[in-house]
From TrEMBL:
Record key words, sorted: FAD, Flavoprotein
Flavoprotein as UniProt keyword: yes
Pfam families to which the protein is assigned, alphabetical: FAD-oxidase_C, FAD_binding_4
Swiss-Prot/TrEMBL cofactor(s): FAD
Lineage, top ranks: Bacteria, Pseudomonadati, Pseudomonadota, Alphaproteobacteria, Acetobacterales
Protein name: FAD-binding oxidoreductase
UniProt xrefs under PROSITE patterns: FAD_PCMH
One annotated GO biological process: respiratory electron transport chain
Single GO molecular function: FAD binding
Length: 485
């Protein structure tokens, strides 16, 4: 939590190799190089305040050519570089270390949408374009860019691609990787990979673009991408449901999927504890049901068909589930405002947990069929580990990704609780491993989970990752200390 960390510590630019700062200033201009400690400070800590590093300066290139030239200068001087977009990483993936040697490269000035083609259903956007801006630009062209997550008002295209972000609509549209057709990137030696193709079929050797999606900036900097668009939905329906238990939540998902898989845009699970925290801490949040429950789901349906009949579908499935005892109560949003209010209960979970006190995040995934067992087993194990602690599982039941978070016991010392973060993560991961899952679903590895990679992805898998890293970035200057320790 914020009060458990020392202040961020900018380092003087004089700590850079001789002549490098002058060369960078000549290249990028005064707007492109931040050296004032007050200007640098916001770039030195992550959203969760897990890490606070040091840096001699922040580079802010305005275009790909400037970035490529700056990378060449830093590479020649042996200076490590840390890419940063909206700085919303949950695992410290965009934060410099404490050495004061790493230069932050902020890509937020590279924020042009270069092209939108509603016939090809593609958009080419630069790395610094905010995700919400990309969504709005697509909507303005009569299309849909479906990637959606809680930080979409801050997160950038380069960041969501570098972390292979998932979010709320993965069950229907896939992760960021599935939404990317082509990519432009600056390599560790300053070369530019020109791969902004908008082809649906391009079978010409290694798909190099995929090295950078999920690479977290360790192989190069994503500067632009060609993204898939979809026809805009003509009809949407959102429901908030109290369900009997975790198994009933999964049964409801299967009912919707079996009735019309293409209509299910999102299916989110929330615990009673999580909703209680949202109602307690988020101004204006209200429960749309008559009584509190221990388990809830959010169902979001959408279709581009003008005669999709989603309301009839929603009501029919919920009626079946009510008769079966799976759903205890449900409310269907009657307006855009009501649908937004339902979604807000889900989206404000991280902020509500932050305001309640210290919490440890566990972004994990298991096969969809095993989500109920994972929630139950992890919750029991965590309470046994730290009596009085409060499991707050929530997230994307439709794709198997649950944020198995743990809130500190009421009245406990936040620092003492956070000191057990790795014990908490190990407890969750033991269950997840037993259920054939993953220790990182959509947040990435960053700095937080590098010690887990060798254990979970050992043998030939990690050996190949290390060989790729060594081949592409032999000096180890690209976002060092992330993904691979």
């Amino acid at each position: 939590m914020p009060d458990t960390l020392p202040p961020a510590e900018p380092r003087p630019a004089a700590s850079l190799p001789s002549g490098l700062l002058d060369a960078l200033l000549a290249l990028l201009g005064p707007r492109g190089v931040l050296t004032d400690p007050a200007d640098i400070a916001p770039h030195l800590s992550d959203w969760r305040n897990l890490y606070r590093g040091s840096s001699p300066c922040v580079l802010r290139p305005a275009n790909t050519g400037e970035l490529a030239a700056a990378v060449k200068l830093c590479a020649a001087a042996g200076v490590p570089m840390v890419p940063q977009g909206g700085n919303t990483s949950m695992v410290g993936g965009a934060t410099p270390d404490e050495s004061g040697r790493q230069v932050v490269v902020a890509l937020t000035r590279m924020n042009r949408i270069r092209d939108i083609d509603p016939v090809d259903l593609t958009m080419t956007a630069e790395a610094g374009v905010v995700l919400k801006t990309a969504q709005e630009a697509a909507a303005g062209a009569g299309c849909l860019f479906p990637l959606s997550l809680g930080a979409e008002g801050t997160a950038t295209i380069g960041g969501v691609l570098s972390t292979n972000a998932g979010g709320n609509t993965t069950v229907r549209y896939g992760n960021a990787r599935e939404l990317m057709l082509g990519i432009e990137a600056v390599l560790p030696d300053g070369q530019v990979l020109h791969g902004l193709r908008r082809l649906r079929k391009d079978n010409t050797g290694y798909a190099l673009r995929h090295l950078f999606v999920g690479g977290e900036g360790t192989l190069g900097f994503v500067t632009a991408a060609t993204l898939k668009l979809f026809p805009a939905p003509r009809e949407t329906e959102v429901a908030f449901c109290a369900v009997r238990d975790e198994d009933a939540a999964l049964a409801l998902f299967r009912r919707f999927r079996d009735r019309d898989d293409s209509a299910v845009r999102a299916f989110e699970y929330m615990s009673g504890t999580g909703i209680d925290l949202a109602l307690r801490h988020i101004e204006g949040a209200t429960l749309p049901l008559a009584e509190r429950a221990d388990h809830y789901v959010l169902v979001d349906l959408a279709t581009p068909r003008p005669d999709g009949g989603l309301r009839a579908l929603m009501e029919a499935v919920l009626e079946e589930a009510l008769e079966a005892g799976e759903v205890l109560d449900a409310a269907i949003g009657e307006s855009e405002a009501q649908r937004g209010a339902i979604w807000r209960l889900r989206e404000e979970h991280p902020e509500a947990q932050k305001r309640e006190g210290a919490s440890v995040k566990n972004d994990v995934s298991v096969p969809v069929s095993r989500v109920p067992e994972m929630i139950r087993r992890c919750s029991a194990a965590l309470v046994e580990l730290i009596p009085g602690s409060r499991p707050v599982p929530f997230g994307h039941m439709g794709d198997g990704n649950i944020h198995m978070n743990l809130e500190q016991p009421e009245g406990a010392d936040p620092a003492a609780f956070l000191a057990r973060s790795h014990d908490i993560m190990d407890t969750v991961n033991a269950v997840v491993r037993d259920l054939d899952g993953s220790f990182s679903a959509e947040h990435g590895v960053g700095r937080l989970k590098t010690d887990m990679v060798a254990d979970w992805r050992g043998g030939a898998e990690i050996d190949l990752m290390r060989r790729i890293k060594a081949a592409v970035d032999p000096q180890g200057l690209m976002n060092p200390g992330k993904v691979l320790d």
